[in-house]
Every structure is written in structure tokens, then in C-alpha cells.
Fold these 3 entries.
Entry 1:
Amino acid sequence: LLLWLHANYASPFFGAGPMEDLGNSKVYAMYVSSGGMTLGDRDYYLANDSRNKEVREAYKKLIIDNMRLAGYSKKEANRIMKNVMKIETALADSAWTREQSRNLPAMYNVRTFAQLKEMYNNIPWDRFFIETMGIESPETVIVTELSSVAQANNLIGTLTDREIKDYYLWQYVRQAAGKLSDDFADAAFEFNKVMSGVAAKQPRWKQALATAEGLMGEAIGQLYVEKYFPQSSKDKMLELVDNLKTALGQHIDNLTWMSDATKAKAHEKLSTFTVKIGFPDKWRDYSDLTIDPSKSYWENVKAAIKHNVDFSLADYGKPVDKSRWYMPPQTVNAYYSPLSN
């Protein structure tokens, strides 16, 4: 079940996957990291102020409501909730604070595969990478939060089968819940009113659009830019940015407080800027994703999730593609990626 969930739907106990190597952003490395907490932040589980207590109670109710809707009795749903809270609270207790998570050098803990197996011996690493990712066991991995993965390993080795199975049941149901009936959507809305302060539930068409955009963002983006941002507009903006880079270069040359060596380094940094305007130069190919109208909404969502997982895993062992977009063109936002610098 651990391997099946990691391969398809969720990351119980810990997370794993390829990302840019923090020590060499030109290549992808295999990471093992913290995971398994539905609420994400440790404070939701551990802090005793009224706000976090309120969120915890709402989360407990969400678990019970969803498990009842999934067919479990009231007694079973309460048991599942208690076991989930026990496990996720234990994971939170070992999780890093927000401040600690900003210390990227402290998260760069390179370990050999043999060391990984020795440190976390309750996790079936010999099977894990091949069965969840289709990747042979890597020579080295980067463990980001040593204490969190150690806690996951300890829990897997000490919890009862019933506790672990209840945790896995919730991991699966919570992934599916948002793509099921209105009863599940209503339960999620009641939780989100407490968690996020939302005042009204989104209409169904917006929810469906958000799902499609989240799973096939560039496919929708390609249609969007055809209507609202043609190639001619992109070319104008690229020319503008090129002019800005030229001006910045001239500004560097005219600085009196920089030495020649420092100016050379500044020019080197300026030359490495990756400019992304409007939309990707090469669109992502979704041709191997099959959406079958004869299947349920959730079955098609599962197919899209698996497609995205496989897309990410295909990066491993390849040079980093600096031209890839991590946000669809129709999204008005910005991001900074330390892994890409």
C-alpha cells in the first residue's frame, strides 16, 4: 500500500522525487523529504492558540465526514480520524519550522543509497524507487529534513497495521474527495470556511475549470494565448527586455564603485538570465494522455495525475531544461526558484 500510494496518489509518511540539485542546478538529483501532513504546516497540529485549535477541530470533522461518505460507520470513521491525527501530529512534531525550511544549505544532506537504507531501515528502499517511479535505485539521494524522515521511519516500524491502514485509507479518500459528489464538496467547503475564510462555494464550472487548468495548464494556455497574446506581442516584449539587459550592462560598466573583476562577474550573471515572456517556446505534449468520456470524472483525474507524475519522473538522469515553465501562461503571478540559480 505504501508503494502503491506513492506511485499513484499521495506521499504518506514522506516525500520523494527528482528535482534540480541544490549543489548543481544543471542536473536533476533524487530527493527524499518530509511529507504526510495533510495540513502542511506543523503549527496546525502543535500550536495551542485558538486559531490553530479551531483548524484542528475542523480537520477532524472533515476526516469523519469524508470517511462516513465513503461508506464507513460512525465508529470506524472516528477510529480512522484518531489514527490519522496521531500519525500526522507525530510527523508534525519532527517537521521543520518555517524559518528552518528557509535554510537551504541545511537541507542539502547527500547520502549514498546504502546510507539511506541503514538510516531508515523500516522503509523498503530496494523496492521503493523501481516500484513507485520506475527508476533504478539511485547511487545517492539528498535528504532534506533528516529528523522528519527519521520520524517517518520510526512510525512505520512501530505503528500497528490497523493504524497504518487507517492512515492510508484517509490518504486515498482525501485525494478523491474533491472529484466526487456534492456531499464531499460540501464537507470540504465547511472545512475551507475555517481554514481559509472562504465565504461562498465556487460554482461547479469554476471547480471543473480549476481542475483542468491544474492538471493540463499548458494545454489550456495554448488556447488562451492564441486568442489573447499572439507571437507578435511576445516578440515586442522580448525586444524590450533585450534593450533593458543592454541598458543594465551599460549601467554596470559606468559604476565607479565596482572593480573590473566585479563588473565581469556582474556581466556574467546578467548573461545567464532566462527570459520567459508570455508562453513557452515549446509547448508541452499531452498526446499520450487519454481522457475517456465513458469513464468517471475521478478516473480521468487519476489518469491526468499519473501523466503528470510520469512527466516529472522522466526528468531524472537528464540535464535541467531551463526553458521549462512552472506556471501556465494564463496565471497572473510570479515565482522565484532557488533551485534554478
Note: The chain has a mean pLDDT of 93.
Entry 2:
Amino acid sequence: MKQLFDILLYDPLLNSLVFLYQTISFHDLGVAIVLITIFIRIILYPVFHKMAKNQTVMQRLQPELKKIQELHKKDKEKHVQATMDLYKKHEINPFSNIFLVIIQIPILIALFNILNDILKSNFSSHIYSFITPPDVINITSLGLINLNERSIVMVVLVALAQYIQAQMSLPALPRDREATQQEKIGRQMVFIGPVLTLIFFYNFPAAIALYWLISTAFSILQQYIVNEHIQKNGTVGTNSQKNS
């Protein structure tokens, strides 16, 4: 299993990163990490776009889901059917995000292992024959950030970016309506997510925080595209930029 994992994910990603490091990133590991992250996010764009759309539409459907629950609270079969009809109308699958998250896990594991191995110079055995491994990896990016050490600034930036992305996914809450339980949880997660990020990434090397920061920045861009599409096509609700 490990050999298959290396062949399909670890080795191609590692060699791509090393190639970028020695060519267009001018031997700056930070720049190479930014480039490989953008490259991966472009390849996985449809996956992340689907996740962002599902999450945003689900948030905006909460008032309608609550109405369905109240209307069919005594008839479970009609409740389920009306709920599924609503999902079908808005072309979302509430269970698809689970699958989309699962297929990303191997890639994240591979990238985390690659960055750790590069920082420890423990990767030469995985380099393809047509790529010359660098004698030394420059772990100082832009002459400012030591990618092998933790960076509080980087972690704070990651948490801030996650907050922005989560906030963008929330719909406006009308003043004349009380938030549903699901909406309340969603608004709480806007703050809980960044706090967990601060805790989780606090002791990680800046290289890993940098990867997560660029990936989250890409998510913000995709969330903006999703919001604009929903607003333009009037899929559900209103744009999430305003919150009461």
C-alpha cells in the first residue's frame, strides 16, 4: 500500500516540487511551495468548487428546510421526500462533501510528508533519474521566513484567511427571523475553525502553514466565484457578504 501511495502521489508531487525549486522558483522553497499549491488547487478546482457550492447553498437553504420540517413534522416520509426535492431543485447532494473530503486526504498526507522530508533532507531516494536532486535546500524564503521553524505570523494569517472564507459562505440573516439551530452552529464554526487552526498549526513548521495559507487563499477566490454565481442566477437567498 505504501509503495502504491508513493508511486501515485508522493513521488510525482515531490519531484514536481523539486523541479519548481530548481527552475522557476530560483531556489526559494517558499516560492516553490506556493507554486505547487496553486498547481494542485487548479487540478482539484472542480472538487473544491463543488464543495464550496454545496456548503454555501446548504447554508442558504436552512430557512426552507426548517419550513419543511414544521410542515411535515408528523409525516416523516413526506418530510424526507420534500427535503430531497429541495436538494434536487438546487442541484446539490448533502452527502457529496463527505466523498469530496475523503479524496483530498491522501493528497494532504502526501504533501505534509513531502514538506517534512524536504526540511529534513530525507528525500533523495524518491527523486526521478531525470531530475538532479539539490545538494542543499534553502529553507529561508525571501530572506525572511525560516520554513523549518514555526511562525506565529504565518499561523495567524492562516486562521484569518479561514475566518474570511467561512464568513463568505454564510448567508445574510434577516432581522425579522430567528436563526435556525443549523445556522447558529454555522456561525459558531466561523470562529471555532480559526481557533482550532491556531492550536493545530502552532507547532508546525512555517512551510506547512504556508501551504495551508495559499490553499485557503485559493478557497477564498473560489468562494467569491460561487457567491457571485449564486447571486447572479438567484439560486437561493442573498449574497453572504452582509451579516446581521
Note: The first strand starts at residue 140 and ends at 141.
Entry 3:
Amino acid sequence: WAAFIPPQYAEGQYIYLRLQTASVLRLPVQVWEANSFFNHAAEKNMIYGIFFGILLAMLLYNGFIALMLRDRAYIFYVLYILFMFFYQIDTHGYFRLYVQIPYAVYTAGFWCFLGLTFIFATLFTGSFLQVKRQEKRWFYPLGLMIVLALFQGAAGVAGRPLLANQIGHLLGVLEP
């Protein structure tokens, strides 16, 4: 880590870093010794591997059920899991690690994956609860959430990450 610290640095001085992201930046900075970092990264990757493995297992299992039942709610659920998987891989940096694309495309993918996750979660909810037939009063609020998710994705792709993030937080509160 000494390579990143200026040679004229004296203990107690501040070091300023400029960090940029496509969404809200919450980055706790920590300086590691090499062995400690590699041990921490290995543990973290193992946990993410389990998490992503569970998402893939859910995707395959529910995808098989959706094919057998041809139920609309299941198809929406499978698409929700698919885009949640892509969103999580993108958010945690694994997508960019394995797929070399320009940063603008990577950022657009982030916002599209998030928007599609919200859209298919809403479609699954409406279809599963049969809102159009059973609870008509919820049909328009769910439609509004889909419109907000489309707007959130479009705002992010158009280079308005703050607006997209605020809409994403609003949907994160409203959708559950």
C-alpha cells in the first residue's frame, strides 16, 4: 500500500482521494496489509459465491417450474430473480471483473438491471395477487411503480444518477 501514499507523507497528514460512482457513494476506506487483504477478499468472495449460487439455484428451479406451469406470475418471478442476479453481480463489481465493456455501457446496465428488477417485482406482485381481478384499487398504484421504475432506469441511462438513485430509494420503500 506504500505505493499509493505520496513519499512526502508524514504521519497525521490528510490524504485526499476523489472517488466517483454511478450511484450513491458509500465507501469506507481501509488500508490493508497484503496478506490480510487477500484473506479478507477470499472470505468475501466465498460469501458472494454462496449468495450468487443461491440466486442461480432459485433461477433454475423456478425457471423449470415456470416452463412446466406456464403461469404468468412464475414467469415474472423468474425474470425478477434474473435481473436481481444481474443487478447484484453488477453492483458488487463482478460483472465488470469478467465482462470488459466501456464504463458508460456498464453504468447504463446498472440502471437498467435495477429498473427491470423493480418492474418484474411489481408485475409478479400484481399477477400473483390477481390485483386486476381481485383488488382493483391497487392496480393503478402498481402501475405507477412500474412507470417510476421505467423513469428511474431512463434517468440513470441518461446520466442523471442522483435522480435515478432518489427514485430507486423511493421504490425501495414503496415496493415491499
Note: The CA atoms of residues 62 and 91 lie 23 Å apart.
